[in-house]
Amino acid sequence: MMKKKLEDINTLRKKAEEQLLHQTKKMQGISMKGIKNLAHELGTYQIELEMQNEELRRAQQELEASRSRYADLYDFAPIGYFTLDNNGLIMEANLSGAKLLGIDRRYLINKPFSAFVIRDDLSIFRTHLLETIEKKLRMTSELRIKQKNGAILFVQLQSISSNDNEDGSIFCRTATIDITERRHMEDAIRHQANHDALTNMPNRRLLMEILTVTLEQARRSQDKLAVLFLDLDRFKYINDTLGHNAGDMLLKEVVLRLQNSVRASDTISRTGGDEFNILLTKISVPDDILTIAQKVINSFSKHFMINGHELDITTSIGISIYPEDGKNIEELFKNADIAMYHAKEHGGNSYQFYNPAMNIRSVERLQLESQLSRALKRCELTVYYQPQITIDTQQIFSAEALVRWQHPEKGVIDPVHFIPLAEETGFITAIDEWVLKTACLQVNQWHNAGLKNLCVAVNLSAKEFQTKGIIERITRILRETGLNPEYLSVEITESIVMRNLELMLPKITKLAEMGIDISIDDFGTGYSSLNYLKKLPIQTLKIDKTFVHDITISDEDEAIVGAVIAMAGKLKMKVIAEGVETAEQMAHLKTLGCNKMQGYLFSKPISAQEFGDLYRVSK
Q1: What is the pLDDT of residues 99-123, one digit of tens each?
Q2: How far is the C-alpha of 390 from the C-alpha of 393, rounded, in Å?
């Protein structure tokens, strides 16, 4: 608009000059009056011309001011502006553009813009320039540039226009925007979506993406790969006893050990609470898988120190191999999972390679799990009783209550086959409570039948003993059955006590104050600290059968058993030896000072009726 106004003023001025010239030519031969009129006319034009010249000066001043303001906006705009020729040379740049590249603007002219683009993104820039100049498209591209000081920035290039020079060359104007902060935020969000928040390991989603690509590569190259499914043994007990904070600390330590056990090309992923997957690639020979699996198992052999607690944690590993055990992700994961459960069934702290026979056993396991949930309602569970006797007199003084499952099709199922399943499914609490109540009722019946002073020992699972309200439940059962607490012994495994002594102390103390005998089962297995023995009101130690089994042939086992018996005597505790199967074992125990035992030498676990009959005979 300013330009048009200047053009109009110039037109008026030229018109006035032409009229002045025309009137001058007419002056020849005119009268005085005509001259006066002409002079007046010329004066009027002169005034108009001066006014037009003044307006022109003002217009020129406004134009200069406008140009100055535009230059300021261009130079100090927060966006970098560049004019590039068709070879990508910088013809012009504003101050923000120079600052973005980290170089003085004076040294940018005729410098190739590509000199600041990192090598991996050069193709993006060349395409952007080509599409803008030759096809006159308004392009938007994202790439990385390297400043003079070496800093890497993410920028967005936006084409503004493409024009032709007088010499036929083409140039384009491009806006360059710093998007580094935005990209870092996007990367952080993407990282959070694909990684476990606690351990920072790839999560299941990212693992699936990695495995999809890896599988395709393995198909083309006919390579092998392996999927390892890891589950920590007894991790839930750590959370239940020490709390989730301790559990989180343990998981982080586990990740460190796993990272030290695998190769740089392998991928570790946390896919669940205490579940991890390891993807092994570039498998040259099957022994590579075995080597890594064993290194992982060995990495758990050292204690974990968590909040001052020395924890013994192991892991069970299932392994599936491509292509033998599956040609797609679903098959590989399913079969590795099946193999892991078989490792757990073998006691944990081991690895199992998948084989097709495991599928049949897994189906049976699912069926058993479904049937177990209905076993109590259908009265399929029963309690057997194994006598505990005095070695000198061979008389029964107590019975250990042991649950059995009278399966309608499979017959009697040993607890070793269904108790772990009950613990996993949470059904163990209902079973424990039912066994305790059944055993208490049975002792009362024996007392009423003349089997006086007979006691019963009930083993409570770790899950049951760690639940809230355990004291109230035991109190209620004693009240409902009418059993005097002095005839009840509660057996707790040594590992339960050691997992959280502070948590166990008030519960065990309360039970002892009620008059209940507290017995430590499987004594001597897994833990070396005996500090808890002087803190807890324990009346009985049960020597684990693993020490009794070789007592007649192993000096070490004999020494251990002798030490336990001597220590118990000093602490005024009773000792019961488990798993006594031969007369020689019994004789050795008696020599060492142990006077109480249970085992197949005297009797296997039997029904309540058979126990009553055996008790009367032993009297």
Answers
A1: 888 888 888 889 999 999 999 999 9
A2: 6
